[in-house]
Amino acid sequence: MALERVLVANRGEIAARVFRTLKETGRTSIAVYATADRGAAWTKLADQAHHLPGENAAQTYLNGEAILQLAKETKSQAIHPGYGFLSEDPAFAQAVQAAGIVWLGPSPAAIRALGDKAKARQLAQSLSVGTIPGTNQPVQTWQEIFDFGDEAGYPILLKDPAGGGGRGIRELANADQVRQLAQDFGVDLTANPQAIIAPTSPLATSFLEKRLVGARHIETQCLRDQSGNFWLASTRDCSVQRRNQKLIEEAPAKLLNRTYSQLAQWSAALFAAVDYVGAGTCEFLVDENQNAYFLEVNPRLQVEHTVTEAITGQDLVQLQLAIAEGGSLTDYVDLKAPTCGHAIQLRITSEDPAKGLLPTGGTITSLAWPAGPGIRVDAALAGGETIPTAFDSLIAKLIISAPTRKGAISRCQRALAELQIGGVANSASLYQELLADPDFQNETTQKLPGQEAAGAQAESLPAHCFLLHTRWLENTHLLASWRTERGLSVTIGASNQVNTTSGATTATNASALAAASDTIPTASQASPANEKTWVNLDLEIDGRAHRLTLCAEQIAKILPGTLAPSLSAIGVNSPAPVAQPMRRSRKSTALAKASDNPNEICAPMQATLMRLPVREGQQVKAGDLVAVIEAMKMEQPLTAPRDGQIAKLPVAVGQSVATGQVIVTLAPEENRAK
């Protein structure tokens, strides 16, 4: 069956990337967007865009019921989940299929078998795929963690089987850190050494693995069609990470032939075992002796699929569509064709290197992407847009390719020099330093660049892997916390709510705007001789986004002054210009000043409170964990600034907090319990 109408159940750069392939292949693309994404550049790449009411992920991009209802209403024949959100939710995939809509991913059964890391580990063992020393069942007592550490040797990892994107992994370097973790969860192992892990604890489903020091993180990008044809498109090296989250991805990975053959054999066996159909990634660790160990399978398209496309010349989304339509891989690719050249992907995020890569957000005041041979930019934002703090911090991906790795690194450096993102602190400067390091260039890095100069304690690191350090100069582009009022909202009739994001000030003359539909010519009505200035007006009517191309001069006559700032920017004078109001941006996420009250522990950014391991009246010491917040999918621990007693906990777990909002209050020092 030909898939002509495809809804993309995602946002940002991955949605934009899928829309482009749908456009190239002549299919109708349908976007869904949260309120915070209204008017975003990526929504305008779709043929249709529909509003998902809500501000956060749970209300919007994780709301499978609402997305499925929109898919039915728009007569979508397929749903592409992208990555993250609902892409690995077997219940949603099953609901999509039950509604008679094609799910552009593996079957729900395959997602269940591979999406749980502990179950995937057991499957790998049943296929004689090498696995890291670890446990196959959830840990039940703290003593089990101690015993495993003593047997396997520290460091060890406590892993959430449902975690993804580097989340849900806790590294424990020694027994003392196990005791500290227990204390963070309110368990005193001194008083109760045989304490169990509570069934309601976030650790209740976790399993253990040995951390392999010195291993590289290697992936295989795989595709399998409905006839069982399997293609290992490329390998990737994703070893440059921070907090278990990938920073730099490269393709292909540097492997011995025997190691490559082993990874190919294991990947094919894993896909065949669950009758996997579609695109997916198998992840492994490869040690310094080229011994490989299974990590997990990601049953979806990966963020870094782009570097595979760069060295194979294939569009992986187009192959996903072809496979879903019943096509054979052999009709599209040479399953034995070698890759060509080397590619590197850099994730540009709204995280500030000067503040430990703290998520920032903000409004983009200026934007210029690099260009030239071998440079691809997957972005979803435009200048003037505000980065929603409720979602991922990814601004864009730079995908750089060249005939050699050395050439790709040089091209990356040139691309970063051309990149300009004003108004938002971002991670570009981090990559400049990483790429310039001689050890990275030679693939021999063993420790942090500049570590000795920074006076830090020497630390051995995995080969080709870095830790973030704090010797960063302040970003030259400060957050623009003041910006102009944007957006026009008027009501026409009794039921139609119209919102626009044309850059205009607030309009109150709704009747004049309604009359405009009868008096303003559109671009399609204009004759070649009619030399007018045309502007795009983006509107949302009853939850659906529309773009009108209108005559600017006529708008200026009908709504004098309303569009003055926008029209003057393109050289059109409005009869009655008005001053454009300024306001403090509600989206500004400049870090809060330290509270004037030394007893208050505040949120450094807009976030969600994830965990409170303390209680009112509890004594804490300086450095003790008192709260964990999450912003843009990044967890941020908050610690006690001094010894003291917890006086108040005004925020409940799960609630949103604003920048500078008090999360924990300590009792004044003179009132501390003796």
From TrEMBL:
Keywords: ATP-binding, Biotin, Ligase, Nucleotide-binding. SUPFAM superfamilies: Glutathione synthetase ATP-binding domain-like, PreATP-grasp domain, Rudiment single hybrid motif, Single hybrid motif. Residues 2-455 form the Biotin carboxylation domain. GO terms for molecular function: ATP binding; biotin carboxylase activity; metal ion binding. Gene3D superfamilies: 2.40.50.100, ATP-grasp fold, B domain. It comes from Boudabousia tangfeifanii. It holds the Pfam family Biotin_carb_C. This is Uncharacterized protein. It comes from the Bacteria. Its cofactor is biotin. Residues 589-667 form the Lipoyl-binding domain. InterPro entries: ATP-grasp, BC-like_N, Biotin_BS, Biotin_carboxylase_complex, Biotin_carboxylation_dom, Biotin_COase_C, Biotin_lipoyl, CPAse_ATP-bd. Residues 121-325 form the ATP-grasp domain.
